[in-house]
């Protein structure tokens, strides 16, 4: 029976981070989009002023773009962890790399769907 070679801790940490960042970024995009829209629209409406829907929408889309870039960067880190693990034949970073790439693509799609809402629907309806 051959022993499985141990992966370097840095590779494992990078792969774990690449798995955890996409869902956290999606959750942040979902929460921040709701909080920014709800808080800004409520504050302007309660003050008796018309909310600047264009500015609020731009802030929400800007936040989503930053979180999308973070999610895609995590996918690149996962891809690098997978490539590094395939040369060392380490199963854990390889698995985490593949999982990180899949999660990055899936949650990037979710962030894009969140970012499209202020572009298509009214922000303060």
TrEMBL record:
Transmembrane segments: 12-36, 56-82, 94-116
Lineage top rank: taxon: Bacteria
Keyword field: Membrane, Transmembrane, Transmembrane helix
Designated name of the protein: Uncharacterized protein
Species this protein is from: Myceligenerans salitolerans
